[in-house]
Amino acid sequence: MTSTAHTTAEHRPAPDLMRRTSRAAGILYLLTFVSVPTLALFQPVQDGAEFVLGAGSDTGVRWGSFSEVVVALTGIGTAVVLYPVTRRVSQTAALGFVTSRVVEGSLIIVGVVSILTLLTLRNDVAGTAGADPASLATTGSTLVAVYGWTFLLSQSLMPVFNALCLGYVMYRSRLVPRILPTLGFIGAALLLAADIAIFFGVFDRTGPIGLVAFPIAVWEFSLGVYLTVKGFRPSAVAALPVTPPTAR
Q1: Measuring CA to CA, which residue among 183, 184, 180, 182 is closest to residue 233?
Q2: Residue 45 zone, left/alpha/beta (φ > 0; ψ -120 to 50; rest)
Q3: pLDDT greater than 50 at residue 135
Q4: Using CA atoms in the order 6, 7, 9, 13, what is the torsion angle rounded to 10 degrees?
Q5: Which DSSP category does 11 fall into?
Q6: What Å distances lie between residue 96 and 74, 87, 103, 151, 207, CA to CA?
Q7: What's the angle, vertex CA 225, arms to CA 223 and CA 227, rounded to 5?
Q8: Crossing angle for the helix pair 59-89 and 158-173, nearest 10 degrees?
Q9: For residue 225, with 0-12 CB atoms within 10 Å meaning exposed, 13-18 middle and 19 or more buried, which class applies?
Q10: At what angle do helices 59-89 and 91-120 cross, to 10 degrees?
Q11: Highest mean pLDDT: which of 11-20, 22-31, 34-43?
């Protein structure tokens, strides 16, 4: 009897550890918003042909690429940091959140590689003797298209699955007020519909995606602020199921 009680207490989440976890996750969530200015920073590359051939400055493009890498890493970090907590509620949702974050981060990096390749063509190839402007222009446009599609599949589609997986855990466990994951669910539905419409050519990628993505952005920002400032709700932490030492 004593042994059982000792084992249970030993593996129940410690409040101070949970507070550190929530704070770290919240800060990482807020850091994912460093890419907000990216659309403006990447404005010079919107026409890949003109950019490769010398139009515009590449300083902002470099900063935009750097911020995208930060987003990829911090996004994965949110899932990794929260995993010890989310797995107590649902192993499936916890693994789903980690997986969707890794896919999102990987695709973001692919998009960044396409932009950096565009910079290489501009700085190291376009000015060399024998460079074919027409071929460079075509390649530049192709690289911009690659970034556009990877953006759709990473920073537009993957947040849908992020919100569904993490939102389910937060709604079920009540670790945060239920209004937050509810907003995530609403945003996920709207964003998924918009992504499908873009994918099948109903409207362009530069269409109303920003407006439709607003609710899910509010969910992620609000979650980041809440976890950073207040942390998990103590009553919900106390109600979390004990994870057996042999659980996988």
Answers
A1: 180
A2: alpha
A3: yes
A4: 160
A5: T
A6: 17, 10, 10, 20, 29
A7: 65
A8: 40
A9: middle
A10: 170
A11: 22-31
6 Rama class: left (phi>0) / alpha (psi -120 to 50) / beta: alpha
pLDDT of residue 248: 44
Distance of alpha carbon 96 from alpha carbon 128, whole angstroms = 48
The single-letter code of the amino acid at 133 is: P
- Long-range contacts from 215-218, C-beta under 8 angstroms, 24+ separation: 215/183, 215/186, 215/187, 215/190, 215/191, 216/159, 216/160, 216/163, 216/184, 216/187, 216/188, 216/190, 216/191, 217/187, 218/183, 218/187
Q: Where are the alpha helices (DSSP H) in 58-157?
A: 59-89, 91-120, 133-151
What single-letter amino acid sits at 72? A
Number of C-alpha atoms within 13 angstroms, CB side, residue 199? 12
Q: Contact at 8 Å (CB) between 118 and 52? A: yes
CA 153 – CA 141 distance, rounded (Å): 19
Distance CA 162, CA 130 (A): 48
CA distances from 228 to 13, 30, 126, 216 (A): 18, 9, 47, 18
Whether residue 2 is predicted with pLDDT greater than 60 in this model: the reply is no
12 or 203, which is more confident = 203
Q: Which of 76-80, 127-131, 170-174, 195-199 has the lowest mean pLDDT?
A: 127-131
